[in-house]
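Batch job 17 of 40 flagged for manual review because the log was empty.
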Amino acid sequence: MSTPVLQVRDLRVDIGERTVLQSITLDVQPGSLTVLMGANGSGKSTLGMALAGHPHYKVTAGQAILDGKDLIQLPAHERARTGFFLSFQSPPDIPGVKNNLFIRTALNAVRESKGEAPLDAFDFLSGAKQGAKTLGMPITMLNRPVNEGFSGGERKRNELLQLTQLNPRVALLDEIDSGLDVDAVRTVSEGVRLFRERTHGSLLIITHSTRILEALHVDAAHVMENGVIVKKGGAELVDKTNANFREVAGSAKRISELVGEIAAAVGAPVHPQL
């Protein structure tokens, strides 16, 4: 087996006085798609924020080696230059900064770190327009301030546009399919597939749903609970976890139905949250 492009070893992360991640260890192989699954609040997004260098997420132990460099020892902008990309679960607005300028500035910073010449506006826009077309984005969105006035689906597509233009070594996509309808999920899946085909970059997808994975080949999967990775496997683990989620959801639905039936029988109001 080849050397992992990203090696996370015994990572511990605190938020304030609370330990959120405990001794996280995982590998991401070159060109692979790795999935990190788990319920909301299990610590999945904390891992992404910690690897990206968010100041509110304090790494108190462990390493995250990307191509021989420990990301934990680098400032956030150097982690990005090294080849780490984080797609936010809720991408923020950046008022006053045009989308095309934002992405071109980031891309040229990466190119500079590699000793490559910067792209001028003409050359950059040629590739960016093609990327936007592939993702079903209107070209006019390139001239709008970053995410300002964007719908949820447009924000996620814009994250993928950044991904396809920056071509990172490792991209962590945090709930990239959340809040999207079926057609939008299909478009996002296609963007992820094209990124893998064209760049052979590695992906770590964080999700508690697997809709986006249905059209993609999963190489490795992990399940997180309470800040600890409790299961590791391949694509079969995704299917097994899906089945467990469906079973739990079905049980919860049946309990809600029974509560309604009992309440109707005794003439009591049903609590609106059930």
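Reviewer: the log was empty due to a logging misconfiguration, but the result itself is present. The chain has two domains: 6-98+167-233, 236-274. Unflagging and moving on to job 18.
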